[in-house]
Amino acid sequence: MQQDKGKFTQQEIQSQPTTWMETLKYLKRDWTGKLPILQNYDQVIVTGCGSTYYFSIWASRFLQENTGVACAALPSSEIWYSGESWLKPHRNTLLIAVSRSGLTTETLHAIEAYRKMNKGDAIAITCYEDSPLAKMISTAFVTTAGKEQSIAQTRSFTNMMWPIIFLSERNIEDSLIEQIGQSSRQMVEKYQSTAQKIGSDARLSKFFFLGNGPLFGLSQEIMLKIKEMSLSHSEAFHFLEFRHGPMSLVNESALVVGFNHPQLTEFEYPVMRDMKELGGQTLAVGSFETSPSFADHAFNIGMDVPMAWRFPMYLPLLQTIAYERSLSKGLDPDNPENLKAVVEL
Fold it and tell me: How far is CA 103 from CA 99, 203, 340, in A?
């Protein structure tokens, strides 16, 4: 029935602030003082498929910026098919394998190939404690609060982000856990109606997501959510790369979303101003003292949470846009066209 469409996705998106607190308490309780030291490795490779490959792009850039260790992101198939091209024998490597279900065939094969090459240590991040991935690797972060019934990843993705942040930051105070929960709830409540309005705006037919550094990986993930849930034209670019051709598609039917980093506004804001002048609607997502003048809409994360811990907060409202876009087109966000929750070969 129409009223049942998307009921799981809606609940999973809206429950994120609560599930995040559960995951952060688990990490603090079970992993403080037991974390691998990334600086002991020459390189870290983060791998996954689909959403978790975009996760890997975010995670590799985030970890490299925050730890100084050389990091790279690879689809699991690249390690499975051609791992020798990427993994050098003289480098002490840590592999971080990410899979919501822990069942994804390419990722399991990537772990097997990595072990056969005797390349080093491995970490798993998954939401399912009894999954093959969780059992294959002794160091397994299992974010059970992120379990989902819908096909498109929403809360699973953000809950799996916290172990990556924890690997970098190494500890978290109880007061910060509470602040993350409070700030994220307030943000969702404040901008929920705006996200719903944008998602159901029939004038929009093209969606562009711009991000730099770690935020580029998150822009790719939301690009995928728009495609999966609503079958809409959606693309992701680095900010300045958008000027090199793709902006030719911007007009009054386009929404341009900037994943704004507070240290890079001098590069990012001019691009958004240009897109508004071309007729596109603009949405700024980030931490602002005041909403940017170019923005038709802004989701302000605020500055109460340290930057390293803010990254998951960029996503729930944009997931809501994808969800509302799907409903407005008569689709079911819980069951995207032609997709299954797990790809098993």
Answer: 7, 39, 12
